[in-house]
């Protein structure tokens, strides 16, 4: 299959690949039932990242042009299950002209871009197989969810509150909850009021409405590299151009950010300064002050994402970047998904003035308001003593699991591999040696019975650097430790194979 990609084009490589294969299927060059090259084979042939091929294949599947069969590969046409389903549905309409399955849908213009999220979902499926230990989730342990407490409070709210509060709610959200959040923000050094807070359906919606409100096609956005995979898709979905800022043990390299600001004049800077996802690093206070000053000097918005700074394991978290804000340049996002329950889908935005007013308008367009019943139940739980007890118990549990994973990494992982030391959050980053692709380590790990998150997806650019994200929160200590041991064996095999290939290459050159 002859394919060519234009590396100077502004069209992403995966979109070019998707369009080229789609055209060959349409004109019959690739027939129904044909098997497409494997991800690794096509990536090697085109000299692209395997993630690029995965994204292209996912887009073809969304068009209804291909289907994947576990263990066999990707084939042109619908799956047998889809063919049977559509055949049964059309049986009563035999007088109509048969239409090639999915043909009209594949002709629709698609304005959504979520390549990383789609690829992540595809790559995580093997982690759900029996016997596989998943270190890929980055999610809280459901065994720690306060189900009974929330259940009681839910019933109490339904029984005691005036039914009028269940009417169409205000877009800004429940005042009681916003007032509690303002008090919580004070602990992070942020001086705010309930009037400056907008309740959202999770932090992901908060990021989305900030992007849809203040970003347009061609705008530059500074992001940490690596960073939260969904945020990358949200920004690129708005047509923004991503500029990566390296992350070290002290968080985002603000000195690099400063030089990029001078050159590109970005509209937005996105950062996760505490409990960074995917590395677990924490930005130091000096850098936080510097970043706030940069935003003020250049009149740039900083989007500060705080997912779970409550889970800081070694001392107290530094004051938020927002605490150094003067003039409303920092938009602070808070979530209760990690600290309470993800399924509640409650987060918030802290902002001021015209910025907040525009975000409230975006919330009205997005979903009008977040469930008042959930907000009121959550407020009652957060206001009770039980919340602090549950939070402390979860923090101690996650700290033990982090320590177990760090100990196992130290005792089992090959010497060439390094990793971050997470002071907070659920994740850590495994740095692979030069020349070792994350895809190789990921695939070898699956053979060993362990799944982790592909680090390439967290990067705003084509790799390197090469790495993997592993999460420790949702597995008990012994399970997480066994997962790390399996990953260490897998990485050791990849390193051994790479050394053997290097020796063979050296021998060949010497002989010639």
Can you give keywords for this protein?
alpha/beta, Arc Repressor Mutant, subunit A, Aspartate Aminotransferase, domain 1, Aspartate Aminotransferase, domain 2, 3 domains, 8-stranded mixed sheet, 4-stranded antiparallel sheet, 17 helices, 46% helix, disordered C terminus
Describe the structure.
The chain has 512 residues and is α/β, with parallel strands linked by helices. 46% of the residues lie in helices and 13% in strands. The chain contains 17 helices and 16 strands. The strands form four sheets. The protein has an eight-stranded mixed β-sheet with strand order 4-11-10-9-8-5-6-7, with helices on both faces. Helix 1 crosses helix 3, helix 3 (50-62) crosses helix 6 and helix 16 (438-448) packs across helix 17 (477-511). The model is unreliable at 79-98 and 506-512 (pLDDT under 50).
């Amino acid at each position: 299959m002859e394919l060519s990609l234009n590396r100077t084009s502004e069209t992403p490589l995966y979109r070019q690949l998707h369009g080229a294969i789609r055209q060959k299927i349409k004109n019959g060059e690739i027939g129904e039932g044909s098997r497409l090259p494997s991800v690794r084979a096509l990536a090697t042939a085109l000299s692209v990242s395997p993630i690029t091929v995965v994204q292209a294949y996912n887009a073809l599947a969304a068009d209804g042009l291909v289907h994947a069969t576990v263990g066999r590969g990707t084939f042109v046409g619908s799956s047998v299950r889809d063919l049977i389903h559509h055949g049964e549905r059309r049986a009563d309409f035999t007088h109509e002209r048969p239409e090639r399955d999915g043909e009209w849908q594949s002709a629709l213009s698609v304005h959504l871009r979520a390549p990383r999220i789609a690829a992540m979902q595809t790559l995580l499926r093997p982690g759900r197989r029996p016997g596989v230990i998943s270190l890929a989730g980055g999610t809280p342990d459901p065994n720690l969810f306060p189900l009974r407490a929330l259940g009681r409070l839910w019933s109490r709210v339904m029984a005691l509150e005036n039914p009028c509060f269940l009417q169409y709610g205000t877009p800004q959200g429940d005042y009681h909850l916003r007032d509690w959040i303002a008090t919580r923000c004070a602990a992070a050094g942020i001086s705010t009021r309930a009037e400056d807070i907008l309740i959202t359906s999770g932090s992901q919606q908060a990021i989305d409405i900030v992007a849809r409100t203040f970003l347009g096609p061609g705008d530059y956005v500074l992001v940490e590299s690596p960073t939260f995979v969904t945020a990358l898709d949200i920004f690129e979905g708005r047509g923004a151009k991503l500029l990566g800022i390296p992350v070290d043990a002290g968080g985002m390299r603000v000195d690099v950010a400063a030089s990029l600001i001078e050159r590109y004049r970005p509209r937005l800077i996105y950062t996760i300064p505490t409990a960074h996802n995917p590395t677990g690093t924490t930005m130091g206070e000096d850098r936080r002050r510097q970043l706030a000053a940069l935003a003020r000097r250049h009149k740039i918005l900083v989007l500060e994402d705080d997912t779970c700074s409550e889970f800081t394991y070694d001392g107290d978290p530094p004051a938020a970047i927002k605490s150094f804000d003067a003039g409303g340049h920092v938009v602070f996002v808070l979530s209760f998904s990690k600290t309470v329950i993800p399924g509640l889908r409650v987060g918030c935005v802290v902002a001021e003035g015209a910025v907040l007013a525009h975000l409230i308008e975006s919330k009205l367009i997005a979903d009008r308001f977040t469930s008042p019943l959930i907000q009121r139940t959550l407020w009652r739980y957060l206001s009770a003593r039980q919340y602090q007890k549950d939070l402390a118990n979860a923090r101690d549990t996650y700290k033990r699991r982090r320590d177990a994973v760090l100990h196992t990494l130290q005792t089992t992982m090959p010497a060439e591999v390094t990793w971050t030391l997470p002071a907070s959050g659920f994740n850590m980053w495994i740095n692979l040696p030069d020349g070792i692709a994350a895809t190789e380590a990921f695939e070898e790990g699956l053979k060993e019975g362990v799944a982790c998150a592909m680090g390439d997806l967290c990067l705003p650019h084509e790799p390197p650097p090469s790495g993997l994200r592993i999460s420790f929160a949702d597995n008990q200590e012994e399970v997480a430790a066994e997962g790390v041991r399996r990953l260490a064996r897998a990485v050791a095999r990849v390193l051994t194979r790479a050394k053997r290939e290097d020796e063979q290459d050296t021998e060949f050159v010497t002989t010639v």
